[in-house]
Amino acid sequence: MTHSTIGDLLLQNGVSRRAFLKYCTAMASLMALPPSMGRALAETLRAARRPSVIYLSFQECTGCAESLTRAFSPSVESLLFNVISLDYQDTLMAAAGHRAEEARAQAMKDNDGEYLVIVDGAIPTADGGVYGMAAGRTYLDVMQEVGKGAAAIICLGTCSSFGGIPMAKPNPTGARPVSEIISGKPIVNISGCPPVPEVITGTLFQYVSMGKLPELDELGRPKVFFGNSIHDRCYRRPFYDEGKFAKTFDDEGARNGWCLYELGCKGPTTYNACATVKWNGGTSFPIESGHGCIGCSEPEFWDKGSFYAPLSSAAFGKAGNVSPREAAKLVGAAAVVGGAIGLGAAAVSRQRQQKLAGAAPDKKEG
Amino acid sequence: MDLLTFARGPALQFALVVFTIGVAWRIAGIALLRSGKLLSEPRAPLVKALLAGLATTGSRSWPHPEFIGRTGAGEAIGYSYHIGLFIVVLAFAPHIQTWAGFLGFDWPALPSGVITIISVITFALLLAVLFRRLTHRVLRLLSNFDDYFSWFITTLVIVTGLMATAHFGGRYETLLGLHVLSFDVLLLWFPLGKLMHAFYIFPSRAINGYLLARKGAPS
Amino acid sequence: MNQAVPAPFKADHQTRMPPEARAQRALSSFAHEFGALTALRMESCIHCGMCADACHFYIATEDPKYTPIWKVEPFKQAYKRESGPFAPLYRWLGLKKEVTTAELEQWQELLFDSCNLCGRCSLICPMGIDVATLIEQARHAMFDAGLAPAELHQSAQRQELFGEPFESKEPYRQKLEQIGRDHNVTIPVDLPKANVLLLVSGVEIDRYPAQVVALAKVMAHLGAKATFRSDALFAENMAYFVGARDWQRNISEYVIREAAAIGAKTVIVPECGHAYTALRWEAAELHGSKLPFKVQHITEFLADALKAGALKLRKAEGGSVTFHDPCQLVRRGGVMDAPRALMAALGLDLHELKNKKGFSFCCAGGGGVLLIERATELRHRAVASKLHEIDATGAERLVTSCSGCRASFEDAAQHFHWNKTPASLLELVANHLA
Prior knowledge:
heterotrimer; A: alpha/beta; Rossmann fold; 14 helices; globular; C: mainly alpha; 3-stranded parallel beta sheet; 20 helices; 50% helix; 6% strand
C-alpha cells in the first residue's frame, strides 16, 4: 500500500509542482516558518516516504475525525491522506470486522517502531476497562498494545489529550487521557473539541515533512498553534480593553460585536488557534459568531464551571458557579456561626473581667 | 484540579467562610461586652447628636484644616491608595462580574486600560506608604507584624493582578490563579488583623462623633 | 545629635506592695470599667500615627514616645491578651506578652507628665478613637497600681481625706470669707436654701482673689439666690487628674449632697477647666443616676443671662484681645460660644488664634501636669509654640476663662520672659456691668 515517494504520488494524481509548492508555502506560513522553508519543505516532502498511520478511536464522538475531513485549503489537503498511509481508521476505512483488525495487525508488524498512532477519544479504565470494547478487546488493552510499537502518538481532540467529556464529573467509566495510559513515547496533544482542522493537518504535515514532532508547550500541545490564548488574539479585544461588554446574547452590545467576557467567554485562559486560523477555511470562530469561547482545548473544561459564568466568577457551589442565593445562605450561616462564637468570646471575656475585677484591692485605702 | 480552578473554587469558598466567621466573631466579641449608660444631661438634642455622629463617619476622612499642615501629606497618600483600591475592586469588569455572581446584579465598568493605570499608581502609592512606615519615627515605634503583613498581602494582590494582566512572570492562568489565591489569603487574614478597620471605622467614628456632639463639642 | 543619654525615668510609687502585684492591680482596675466602647476604640487603631501630629508634646520634642495612642500601649496589649475576641488564641500562642510592672513604671511619664488630657488627639484620629478618654482610663489603672506621680497623688489624697486640695495654714473657708471682707463684697457661704450652688477654685482663692470677687459681684448683680457651701467648697476634683475613680466620685458626691441640701437648681463651675469635665460630664455616671440639677460653667450662666436680657454690659476699654480656649471647657466640654458672646457684648476687638475654639492648643498645664515638678522642662517645651501663636495674633492682651490656664501661662511667662499675662474673662465681665 505504500508508494515509493509522496512526489510520485502527487504527480500521479495530477498535482502540479507549482500547486504543490504553493501548498507547502502556505503550510510553512501557517506554522510560522520563514517563507524560504516552503521550498525546502516541498523538496523534503516530495522525497519523503509515506509513514504508516494507525488511527484508534475510543470514547469519542467522531467530531475530531469529522473536523479533520473538513480541512479546507487547496484540495491537495485531502491528498494528505495519501501523504500518509492511513492503514487503520474505523470510520473511513473500507474494510470492516476481522479484516479491519487484520489490517491493523499487519501494519503494526510491517512498520514496527515507525508507525504513527493517532488517537481520538478517552480510554475508560474503571472495572477493568469494560466500558469501552471493540472486537472483544478493551480500549485499554488495544491502546497499550498498539502504543508499544509506535514512533509517536498524536492525540486528536481534548478527550484523548486530557480526558475530555467522558472524564467530566462524576466520570463513571474511569475515563483517562492517553498520556496517563502510555509512557515512554513522544505524545502530541492536539486538543480542542474538536481541534481546528488546519491545526491537525499542519501538525501532521510538520511531522511528515520534518521527520520530527513540533515544539510542545507544558501540556504537550504544538506551541505554534497553542502558544497564544484566544484572548490575546481575539479581534474583539479592543472592546474588552474599553470596557464594552455584551450582557445578553441579543442586546445592543452583542449586536455591536462587543466582548463576550460577561457571557462566560473563557478566551483568556484558553490556548488554541481559533482566533487566528479560525474555522471553515477562515470563515469564523465561536466568538465571531457571537458565543463566548468555552475553553474546549483546555483540560477539565467541562468541570470548570458554567460556560456562561464569567471567568472571574466564583467557581464553587452546586451548579459550579455560586448563585446569589447560595452565597447569601453560605455567608448568612457563617455569620451566624461567627456571631455565636463571638457571643461566647464576649461571655468568656466578661467572666474574666469579673474575675480580674474581683481581685482588686479595697479602693478606699488607696 | 489546576491552580486557577482551585483558587476560585474550593479555596475561595473556604476563605469566604472563614472570613465571615472571623469578622462576625470579632464584631460580636466586642459589641456584646458591657456598655455603660450615659447619664449626664446632653447639651445637644438626641437627633442632632445622632446626625452629627453620622456626619462624623464622613468628616473624619479628611483632617480638620488646623491639622492639615502637619499631617496632610501622609493622610493624602493613605487615602489615595484606598481610593485606587476601591476603584480597581469595584470598577474593573472582571471584578464586577465576581461581585455580580454573589449579589445578583452588576454595574458599569471603567475601561480596562484606565484600571491598569490606576493599579500601577496604587502600587506606587503602596510602596510610598511602606517607605513612610519604615522611615517615619512615630510609625517605626508603633508598627508591628500586623501592619507589615497587612501591607504585604494587600500589595501582593495588586501585584499579581498587574502581573497577570501584563502576562509577566509566567503563564496567564498561573498568574491569575496566584492573584485569586492571594486574595483568598487576604480574606483569611482579614479578621485577624488591622484590616478589620474597614468594619470598625463606621461605628467608631459614629459613636465617638455622637458622644462629642452630645456635649456640644466639635467632632 | 549631641544630646546626652537621658537618665532613665524613675517612677513614683505609692502603697507598699510586691512589684509584681502592681501590674496585677493595674489589670484588675482596667477590667473594672472596660467595656464595648473601650474595646472598639482599642481595636480600631490602625497605627497611622496621626495622633502624634495633634499632640504638642510630640510636636515640641519630635520624640515618638509621646504619640498619644502609644501612651496606652500596655493597656492595648493587655486588652488584646485578656479581653479581646481572640484573647484565648493570643494567650495560648504567646502572641502578646503580659504587661509587667517595669513597663508600667516607664509608662508613668507618658500617661501623666506628657499628657494634658487636652483631647486634640481625639479630634484628629481618622478612626474616631477618643484617645484622651483611653488615657483617662489608663490613669485609673495606674492609680490603683500605686504608680501615679507623687504630687498628684498627694493632692488627691488630701482632698479625699480633708476636703481641701492644697495645703493651707488657714482653712479655705476662712480665706474665702476674708476675700469678701478685703474687697468689700458679700460672699454668701452656707445659706440654707438657694437656687444656685457656687463652687470656687483653690487656685483662685490663693492667687486670683479678684476672680472670686468677680463671681460674687455678678451673682449679686443678677440677683441670683446663690451660695457657697463649706462642705463642698471646691470646684477642683484632684482625684480626676490622678485617676482615682472612687475618690473622684466621693468628691463630686459632696457637691451633689450639698446641692440637694439647699435645693439648688444649678451648680456653677467657676473659671476652672477640669472641674467642668468632672462635674458636667462625669459626675452623673459615677453617681449612677441623672443629676437633679444643671451644671454650668460661669461663662455659660452669664451668656444665658445676657441672652435673656438680665445681664447688661458696658463696652470694655483697652486694646485688642485674643482668647485662649481652655481644653476641658471647649474641646472636651462644648462651651465654645458662651465666652464669645460675652466678649462680643463687651465690645472687645477679638483676634482669634490660628488654632482656635475646639482646636486650640493646651496651655500645657492641664491634666495635672502643672503640678508635676519633674515635668516642668517638658511642659515649657510644649507651651513655647503656643506663646508664639498668641503673639502672632497681634493682640495686646490675652484673655482666658480658667485659673489653671492662667497659672500655667504665668509660669510660662516667667520662664520665657514673655510680655503677656492672662486676664480673666469673668473679671472683665464683672468690671463692666452696666
